[in-house]
Every structure is written in C-alpha cells, then in structure tokens.
Amino acid sequence: MTTPADVLRSMFDYHFWATETLIDHLGGLPGGKLDASVPGTYGSMIDTLTHMIDADSRYLLRLRDPTPPLADDRVGVPLQQLRSEMPGHREKWDRVLSELEAGGLHAAIRNREDYPDTDPAESMLLLQALHHGNDHRTQICSTLGALELEVPEIDGWDYWANGRA
What we know:
By secondary structure, the protein is mostly helical. Helix content is 58%, strand content 0%.
C-alpha cells in the first residue's frame, strides 16, 4: 500500500532524477552553449541551473531557521561541480523527509520580504522546492529547444519508465 510519505518521497526522488538527468544532458553540449539564454527565462542555462541548486540549499536552511541570512547565488560554478553536489542534496532532503515522517520537523518563516510569515511552513517550503525545480528545469529545456538543440526527456512518465532513481 502506498503511503503519503511514499508519494512525497517519490516526488523528491523525481526532483533529483530530473535535475541529474538534465545536468548529464548539458554535459554533452558543444562548448559555450551553457552560457546561452533566451528571453523569458532566468538567465543562461548554467546560471539557471546554479540558481536552482543554490535555492534548494536555501530551502533546506529555511526548514531549520526561520530567519536565515540572505545568500546570493554562486557564479561561475562548473557543471561537474554542480553534478557532484547532487548526492549531498539528496541526503539532506532524505533527512528532512525522515524528520517530517517522524513528526519532528517544524519550520517557520518570519520577517522576510520574499516569503509570507508562515508557521508552520513545512508544506510551503516543500511545495516551493518542487515547483521551483520544475520551473527552472523547464526554462533550461525551453532554451535548448529555442537553440534547436536536443531536449532531454525528464517528465514524470520518463522518470517512471526509467525504473525510478
């Protein structure tokens, strides 16, 4: 029987699989293409990917601290470094989800202009992490398509068809 915790874990497993699959795909692009961008997206593909991964770290921090310090996105991070950070992100999110399942996770957001004051904030932060990842992965795929480059198949069907990560 599938539990609500199983569903949430599948959603986060997909989140990591899709990002890792996208990173692997971007690694095969011709030189200089990672710096490409198209109007209506966050920025270059590498900047968008870096922003997405950095934001994931901030969501993890906000699950622990209601008023974390402001942090800027990194710049100039090589694709290989971003890929190497993914297992650590997976482990941190796994710990958060285990705490949530055990009833020991409590998050609050206070005194921030970029978020509404929210207590409890666990659902909002989990939802935002998943939405944010999908939004920016789509922007990167839109950039690839606009440049007439191959777009990886990273939707839910493909995740399931690939035996789930």
